[in-house]
Amino acid sequence: MTIFEATCSAPVNIAVVKYWGKNPEKIALNLPTNSSLSVTLSQDQLHSKTTIRASADFTSDRLWLNGHEESIEKNKRLVTCLRETRALRASMEDKDAALPKISGLNIHVCSENNFPTAAGLASSASGYACLVYTLAQLFQLPLDASDLSIIARQGSGSACRSMFGGFVAWEMGSKDDGSDSKAVQIAPETHWPDLQAMICVVSDAKKGTSSTEGMQLTVKTSALLQHRIKDVVPKRMEEMIKAIQDKDFPTFADLTMKDSNQFHAVCLDTYPPIFYLNDISRAIIRIVTEYNKDGIKAAYTFDAGPNAVIYAPEKNMAEIYALLSHYFPGHQFDDSLGLLKNNAAPS
Ligand code: 2P0
What we know:
The structure is a single chain. By secondary structure, the protein is an alpha+beta fold. The chain folds into 2 domains: 3-187, Ribosomal Protein S5, domain 2; 195-341, Alpha-Beta Plaits, CATH 3.30.70.890. The protein contains 8 helices and 13 strands. The strands form 3 sheets. Strands 1-4-7-5-6 form a 5-stranded mixed β-sheet. Strands 2-3-8-9 form a 4-stranded antiparallel β-sheet. Helix 1 packs antiparallel against helix 3 (145-155). It starts with a strand and ends in a 6-residue tail after the last strand. The site of ligand 2P0 has 15 residues, from helix 4.
């Protein structure tokens, strides 16, 4: 019996203008309340890897995540990505009788992350980008990365940005069906090789409040979010794009830190409040602030968890590593600090 198979890997992205909030009337579509922008990291150290097989021998769709079998049916977002890609394959098969009939076969999905899942390290971003990219390879879909980002977005919002390497904007779009809420590349992975990212794993525990739950509560209760959406992010997106195009690190860093701070302020303004930073996260903020006192040399950013990502020009990285190792001797994240070049796309 023929088995059809595809294996791909996809990178993590770390936002410098954060996505937080989705249209409450269209939760399933993951339509964001603001545009966002991220840097895609190298796949060398952090990535998701997915193998998908389709066969007439398989009696049901099945899923294994990091070695454990999980229910596909309970995972509505995965079912959506599968339904969308299968429908596209089915319409290709309708038009071309010579194509193998794969769309009607059951599939087995096996996906792994080589880093802590759900600890605010963008595991859903690389995971869903990888799922959709691998489905597109399996079904031979003639879609470009922006088209695929629209499907990946429905798996997890931030996943749409992992469809490209380099510097990527997620344009929020304005259409009700989400057909223009997609990722676009602002600059390729070769654009700014001097910019590096360091991941500081403060904790690899699963986060207390999931992003989806947190965002819904924030949209319902935070007045600060409304200010952010209307008065801050549109201008910040323009300034960030220009800073990236100009390779202007001080401006890039200033905007990155302010946006991380405002995202966590919005979490605090949520009622009841959401706390993602811990004492070590706050100590890292103070260390970077002190390090920058005579001119900006590094930028911190934190997602929905306590782990820090520090962006800096390559020449500063050894100093930053030494500084953090000095202040946190023997802390577990000493072993996890790594330098990552920003140079990847799904493959
Ligand atoms: C981001 N985060 O822009 C922001 C910053 C966390 C903080 O995107 O509900 O896992 O799957 O669409 O994409 C995390 O949210 O949320 C996230 P869903 P997702 O990277």
